[in-house]
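Morning!

This is the sequence you dropped in the shared folder:
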Amino acid sequence: MRVALCAATYRRPEGLGRLLNALAVLELPGGVELEPLAVIVDNSAAAEAQAQVAAAAQSFRWPLHYVSEPRRGITFARNAALEKATALDCDFVAFIDDDEVPAPRWLSALLTVQHQSGATAVLGAVEPVFPAETPEWLIAGRFFETHAFADGAEIDDAHTANVLIDLRRLAALGLRFDHRYALTGGEDTMLFRDLRDAGGRIVYAADAVVYETVPPSRTRLGWLLRRWYRTGNVEAALYLRGRRRGAWRRPANLLRGLLRVAVGGSLFLAYLLVLGFGRKERIVRPLYTLCRGCGILSSTFGWNYSEYREVHGA
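The structure's back. Tokens below.
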């Protein structure tokens, strides 16, 4: 069985270095004929990561492949990873980000759950690692934590921050990342929704943990508000392309957005009046609903936030 460990990178040499070091010391499952390899897709037009990857490949534990994808956008990079893994005759791809490092048992846990379940995709856990100057309210609010499920539980969606995908099944379904979301993000949400709609199954591997380095630029309220706004954009797009499509969905989307804005705004004002600024994490929480509602409204009219135009971290 051949597995490609895939990461897209863009101007994060420090993060890429940490990732490569962690991949090189992964524990492999016993009793399985496994051929791991790594694929790094450089999304810089100047091929900025080429020398770094080439140097690492000289002593890397298994084959390390470099791919240049100069077309700017996360979908181009991730599709390039899928194409390279297919060309290398891989059975599975495991996606991880260039600002993350996997726990030693990461790959083993993903493969174990996939073997037990036969699922098309297996999602793992992402745990944030904050810089020392992170505000206490942001950590207390748990705004960066992802949902956790029981090991082996079947779930509705996934993301590419930590996921194993049956490459052959994905190809049979004709699925790839949608370039309409190249700079906005949400492309992974769309792909896994399509995978589920086509009959694919997604399960959760509780022990497949990766650690995400949160840069200081993301430990600010402004970044959180923009991220929540963007998730509203994605939610609106998902709703508009639902199974029961029709002209009624657009006004229904507007109503959904307005409702979220009203609820989130009311709760924010109520919390502010009752709590003041003493519990900032509680004050901020309703802004998630408010910003998501604004994102739904704007996306319904074709206005979306291009989150991936910015680079956070090094």
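Headline: The domain at 2-218 is CATH 3.90.550.10 (Spore Coat Polysaccharide Biosynthesis Protein SpsA; Chain A).

More detail when I'm at my desk.
O.
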